[in-house]
Write a structure and sequence with these properties.
By secondary structure, the protein is α+β, with helices and mostly antiparallel strands. The chain is built from eight helices and 17 strands. It is elongated. Bound molecules: flavin-adenine dinucleotide.
Length: 307
């Protein structure tokens, strides 16, 4: 039994079937596939981390993503755009140099670039935003994006093809434990027996663990993101600035996706807040200038006249 139909739950089901021929498996998802973090995230795929473990782990992850469309025979719209992280202070420039060297050492494609190279990569970028001028950038050529919901569907399709059962709208409300072993789960649609269960419920891990009688040292904080209506393509790489608490990318469909930092209080609610939208838009405006060929007119229908 796999509880949670996000990227992890569905990938576990798929790889168990593919590599271990274990197919007597059910995935129970309380809402819809990918409806948790997996299809709400900002879809940045990268391996430019600081530690050797981080770089090696995420390099494998990037390689895995590069081949997923072939593996699923289903287009996840993997798009290698490169990721540009902006440095606004000397301390960040030093930290980025270290990151670039660690990355290179483990075979990653990450390098420091100067202001001129940044401007060539992203002509619409404002390199002198108010109080925080851009000093240099960390350019990660392997940085990419993909359709996150397609990743969930691809894993689900291939797992189901191998015999895995997938049940959406099935909320696991309690665990049945006998003699220290799980023997079943109680859901809103009835009780299901099982000999073994995996919880792949991300932010709900502590909630479910409590039902099994133990406490996990995991606390959930909201992480918000935001997406605009589609506009004409103007931004190719993924651009981020931790000093401005903002990162931006444009999807293949033209929407501009904004991400930022997490909220400072534990919460399970998934509603967005006006404060976060205001702060992301303010940062987005600060680092972006309308350049040549850029337009504020949405693609297709003119939504500005919508009631
Ligand atoms: C705003 C935001 C931006 C992000 N950006 C990025 C990014 O750019 N790049 C990146 O790599 N990562 C990003 N992440 C992180 C990434 O999305 C997560 O690490 C990943 O999706 C976790 O996958 P998961 O399968 O573990 O969890 P989820 O996708 O959350 O899946 C867990 C599932 O469990 C279900 N569930 C919970 N409780 C129960 C229950 N009792 N019974 C049945 N089902 C249950 C939920 O409905 C959910 O569908 C971001 C996350 C957020 C929130």
């Amino acid at each position: 039994m796999i509880i949670g139909g996000g990227g992890h739950g569905l990938a576990i089901a798929y790889y168990l079937a593919k590599y271990h021929n274990i197919t007597k498996v059910a995935v129970l998802e309380k809402a819809y596939l990918g409806g948790g973090n997996t299809a709400r995230n900002t879809a940045v795929i990268r391996s430019n981390y600081l530690t050797s473990e981080g770089v090696r782990f995420y390099s494998e992850s990037v390689k895995l993503f590069q081949n997923l469309s072939n593996e699923f025979d289903f287009n996840i719209m993997y798009s290698e755009r490169g990721q540009l992280t902006l440095a606004h202070t000397d301390a960040t420039v030093r930290a980025f140099r270290q990151r670039a060297e660690v990355n290179k050492h483990f075979g990653g494609h990450t390098e420091m670039i100067d202001r001129q190279q940044i401007q060539e990569l992203v002509p619409t970028l404002n390199l002198d935003p108010g109080h925080l001028p851009v000093l240099a950038g960390l350019w990660h050529r392997d940085g990419a994006t993909a359709r996150h919901d397609a990743v969930a569907w691809g894993y689900a399709k291939e797992a189901a093809k191998r015999g895995v059962e997938i049940h959406q709208l099935t909320d696991v409300q309690d665990l049945i434990i006998e003699g220290g072993q799980i023997t079943g789960v109680k859901t809103n649609r009835g009780t299901v027996q099982c000999g073994c269960a995996v919880q792949a419920v991300a932010g709900y891990s502590s909630v479910l663990a409590q039902k099994a009688g133990f406490r996990l040292p995991i606390v959930s904080y909201p992480l918000q993101a935001m997406v605009t209506q589609p506009v004409k393509p103007f931004l190719d790489p993924l651009v981020s600035s931790s000093a401005l608490h903002c990162y931006v990318q444009q999807t293949s469909r033209g929407e501009v996706v904004f991400g930022g930092g997490s909220d400072p209080y534990p919460l399970y609610n998934t509603r967005s807040t006006l404060e976060m939208k205001e702060s992301l838009i303010a940062s987005g405006i600060e680092i972006s200038l309308p350049g040549q060929g850029q337009t504020d007119a949405p693609m297709g229908r003119d939504y500005r006249h919508d009631p």
